[in-house]
Automatic annotation (TrEMBL):
CDD domains: MFS_NepI_like. The lineage of its organism: Bacteria, Pseudomonadati, Pseudomonadota, Gammaproteobacteria, Pseudomonadales. GO terms for molecular function: transmembrane transporter activity. Pfam families: MFS_1. Residues 18-388 form the Major facilitator superfamily (MFS) profile domain. Keywords: Cell membrane, Membrane, Transmembrane, Transmembrane helix. It is a multi-pass membrane protein. Gene3D superfamilies: MFS general substrate transporter like domains. It comes from Pseudomonas cedrina subsp. cedrina. This is MFS transporter. The keyword Chaperone does not apply.
Amino acid sequence: MTPSLTLSAASDRLPIGALLALAMTGFICIVTETLPAGLLPLISDGLAISPSMAGQMVTAYALGSVLAVIPMTIATRGWRRRNVLLLTIVGFLLFNSITALSSHYGVILVARFFAGVAAGLAWSLLAGYARRMVAPQQQGRALALAMVGTPIALSLGVPLGTWLGGLVGWRTTFGLMSAMSLALIAWVLVKVPDYAPQPAHQRVSLRKVLTTPGVRPVLAVVISWMLAHNILYTYIAPFVAPAGLADRVDLVLLVFGVAALVGIWLTAKRVEALLRKTVLVSLMMFALVCAVFGLMGSAPLVIYLGVAVWGLSFGGAATLLQTALADAAGDGADVALSLNVVAWNSAIAGSGVVGGVLLDRWGVAVFPWAMLVLLAVALAIAAAAHAHGFRPGRRSAHGAAVVGH
């Protein structure tokens, strides 16, 4: 154990500045990924390409995250932790700058792919970094704070980026993302502690991580829960149209985002003592929303209330699932969290395909019932994984590991 970790663990105060730097990294990951969706017409006109070709900027980013995260995580396990974090942020600075300056579509696609590589590495690092800054009994709260950038980006970052694009142009908007990355580099250097790499004898192979009890059930819940979530989130515009809310999608997503922030706050209060119960309750809440949407989804008030409950149940998902996964994996937590990135992004990609097929064949009315099936699978797996993946009782009672010490 390093001296800095000993000092951090001995303190009862959360390192707010350092954790918020991690949250800002997650914010930049999400906004960089989703920004082209809001700027699609502007990018299409600016590069003289079709909207569908412009949309491949999102695809290239997702591919970079999925394909590179595991090899990059394994390759950088011998590096000091802050150097890895800085590498990911420098990646955003460089590749968002290329996107902002290049007029060649192929170059931009390559830049987007490598921005996705940076994001994949960042997501595999953030949870373990946040946990390592604090004592075991504070890990859940620390992770909740480090993950707060995600719902903020989803609820405010993308609409703000879209608005800025209309105001100053899409290239300047990507340039501003680079400026944020530059400021974040300075923030990390000042506030975020550095840690030694995990000792070689503690590093666990990918195969061993996958066969560690509890890891696969948690990953299965990640896939089924996130697939259900992203079917609705990706196709929220057509889903709310029958309720007459086609022109109020921004407000619907704002309700979701605010509720998700409340969900993160509640999760931070409950994750240490009630991780298992919170996972099960969150899944049941979302399942109830799906059932109500299936029966009364054409009423605007039902949509707004349902989206609020959905956001509340989803806000703490990243904290809950990454905490459960890291606890189950022990010394293999970094590799397990890279697998989480693959599972999460695969669910996002899969939701676009599955949701598109459902939409084309049966319409949005079938969405709630398909999501309900997925959530029933997630609930069954989480309920059965009481011995390892989602254990009952306080986390400290069953020796949650501090990642990488």
